[in-house]
Design brief:
Length: 215
Amino acid sequence: SAEKANSKLSKYLNTTKLIKAAAKGIEIADEFINTNSRLELVNDGLQTQSELQDKIFQAANRSSGSYMDMANMVSTLGSTAKDAFSTNDEAIAFSELLQKSMKVSGVSGAEQGSTMGQVVQTMGKDTLTGADFSSISQKVPSILEAVAEYTGKSEEELNELASAGLMTADIIKNAMFVAGDQINKQFSTMDVTFEEICNSIKNEALEAFQPIIET
């Protein structure tokens, strides 16, 4: 009786695992489809949709980030910060540098998603308020360093400019691009974490299963 009960219980548990796995698969597929639908809306036409996704996959892997997070960032920048980012390539390059800057600045994996979201929302404003600039500078000090180097002004002077309504998203974008080599150099010296290895595995799996998800 015990053997029969154990056999039935095992079958039940295996079935439950399969159902949970299928549900998780559907959840991932839906998120992937929704994300790429948003990307399609902001595609500047300089590449196919497949090529745009491939560029984001590569940028996410280079920065040890999540494809989903980076794709969402690129699509948001493309829809809310069109004046600052005229092409998808600019939005992708900025997203990659931001991801690397967060690691250099010591932003933990758990905080990266919310921090990226805040920076993206801020970049969607043509002119930043003093509170906006202060907030992103505190969370990602690399941004402050890049803007200070780009403008030749001190932190106090930059905060005054922001309070006076003279700090724009375009200034931050240009500063990050100018500081790109330095950010990449600092990033290359950082040790890889287990979470970043997991991100890489997830990205590769997602890219491999993309045709199946789309089908």
